[in-house]
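Contributing new records

If you add data, match the layout below exactly. Sequence lines come first and carry their own label; structure lines follow with theirs. Keep one chain per record. Anything else will be rejected by the validation script.
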Amino acid sequence: MAMAALHPSQPIYPAGHPSVSDPGPQGDASSSNNFAGHTGLHALHDVTLSASASSTNLSGATAAHQQSASGPAGPGQGQNAASDGTPGVQYNGLFPKNLKVDDFVRIRTLGTGTFARVVLVRRQHPRTEEEAREVFALKILRKAAVIKLKQIDHVRHERQILQDVSGHPFITNLLVSFHDHDFLYLLLDYVPGGELFSYLRKFRRFDEPTAQFYTAEIVLVLEYLHEHQDGVAYRDLKPENLLLDGRGHVKLVDFGFAKRLGRDGAGGAVETYTLCGTPEYIAPEVIQNMGHTTAVDWWALGILIYEFLTGYPPFWHQNPLEIYRQILEKPVVFPQDPSISPAAQDLVHQLCTVDRSRRLGNISGGAAKVKAHPFFEGVDWDALLERRDQGPIVPPVRFTGDAQCFDIYPENDVDFEQYTQELADQYDGFFANF
């Protein structure tokens, strides 16, 4: 699913939920050569199970949400406070404060999700030639569906965290957010290279220098989120949520499951219990509902490296429950072909350690210990952060606004839940600062 990264992940609901459909026949877990996409449906199977309903606070902001503006400074931190002191992004004269969707011309859809659509847009009334050339990715979320799927907190966390981290070189940049009666809008910078997932499928797998490059950029992102943003857990790391910019660098997108966890009184990470993510990438402690921290992102990084190098994740089945069983019971085993270096295998094994107290990235030293691993030998971390060189894959972007790297989608929603006045009276307060 192209552009899955810029829209909320597709939920899998508990048995009996009205949105559940027949999963169909189950495949053979051993037939990895038949892997055609995460859980067989090109990564449509992100999960937000019943635990997320209990985590949604409909009487006010969650504690994590209340803490989100007070994290330590870092790239992009604090730059998004509105100039008049109200919540929201800083406009800097780029957009009017009473921004409306009619201020943009829709060019085409870049991706669709359960309750969101991402479209390529340009300004309706550009004031200069430069503005006339600018294009943006507009993420449109349906309020009624957000409420129905109990995603209010996730949506609010997404906007707040994007606001706090905008400006980091490897994270999508939130320009402004606004809303009207039926929809919430996030205006993001347009990342023209498309999903890293599509390039991985094209090349079947990456060689180790290519995998090292992308992994290193992701390590810098996780270091920033975990250690400079007061413990932001991303919780949905996968190739579909990594886009490439015009020079071939990673942009992490879709913060729909991200949450700022903070620290407890003893200095440890605060745990959360919401079951969310993509089955192939979910850490054991999430499945066991024993509480999880930012350590889940390091587990997911290990799975991601494995998929970079082999072309498929180590745990896969058409039935998500079987994937969970594999994660809990089976070790990560590498194939004989392709040959994977001992350093790469060791890094994956240290990241995919079931005991999170021994998991690389979550042990003393944090991200610095990951960066010091032999797999990253020769990486100039400063040069990487400054994006001095092009990436190993340079997308074929021909002009500003070129969208050839994204799939074609229908331009109209088939189903549309009405945001009734009754819903507005009950829930508009939760969207007031959007």
